[in-house]
Write the structure tokens for this entry.
Amino acid sequence: MPDEPEDTTTLPAPAPPATGRYLDVFAVREFRAVFAAHALSLLGLIVSEIALSVLVYDLTGSPLMSALAFALGFLPYVVGGTLLAGVADRFPARRVLVVCDLVCAGCVALMVVPGTHIAVLLALRCCLAVVAPVFQGTRTATLADILGDGDLFVLGRSLLRIVSQSALLVGYGLGGLLLIAVSPRHALLITVGTFCASALLLRLGTRRRPARATAGTPLVRDSLAGARQVLSDRRVRALLLLFWIPPMFSVAPEALAAPYAHDLSAGSVGLGLLMCALPVGTIAGELYAGSRLRPATRERIVLPLVTVTLLPYVGYAVHPGLATSLALLLLSGAGSAYTLGLDQWFVRAVPEELRGRAMTLLTAGLMTVQGVGMALAGVAAEFTSVAATVAGAGLLGAVFCALLAWEADRTRPKDETGLTTM
């Protein structure tokens, strides 16, 4: 990555206030650029996932190959998140973000070339997934530079998650409609445009900041050493597991939504509602916690909330109907509001020079465990009913969350807001 010219207009801005509201976050010019770039990148990624899946099916006629093209969006996350995590700290963040967007645009552009072999298409899909955790980890670390490491950072992270959850509700539907009007290859061209637009927004809309760490060792060795350093800290390790374990169990009803909708004779409408309920609950919980609760209160409810957020799944044990299932999923999704306080703890616990690597590792682990959770839910459902699998995921997940909450409370600094009765 070549050096960018220094200029006096790229000096860090004064630190933003430590507390605020969602509107205060949008008042920060750099965040508006990051937010818009996030929305564009996400739109491009969703369109590329759908278009590539359809393109692979058109070329092969194989449902397995089509599903593989989609699944490859999850599996290589762990590669980029461990072997390339050092990129997030040893190069200026703006440069990393722009280069990642341009690499993704280049990969998708190669997919558009007529006659591209199926193996090349799948390899390019893997490249997108390898780059993604580096981009997302660098962007999260940059949020702390732009918004400070106080409440505005938490609200900024929350807004990006809300956009991601909203994309789950509308993105795939819009992508499907797009493919009615244009071919998969033409849809991929739209993705190239969104990645390039994101790169332009980040280049022009954010300041240049120096790298957090020096490049003293080879990249892969530095990345692995950074991961070991992050995971060796008992406090940081406990917080990482609190980010990872609940989603690993919470994906069970989404992974099994199609067979459960079939069991209920709910049809495609019921399937769509079952797929949407959890993201809707998550968005509602995040918005309420971000707009109505004080920062200290958000931190205080982290541990109690994380221990109960999966318990609504236990209600699946009685094989509930569609309306009750939706209520259980909405309730569980709302419990995800614990992540706002957890964000604050995590950014406070990680040394600044490791922040990029820690955020990259967090992203890679989160995507990986969700893929593992989906696979495990599918395997379990082969030996028992769908309802029993979801109920079991809720019960087992709640036990793990309670143990992790106990560990997080034991490692909590004395001056940090949190639960004092566990």
Observations:
- The domain at 232-411 is CATH 1.20.1250.20 (Growth Hormone; Chain: A;).
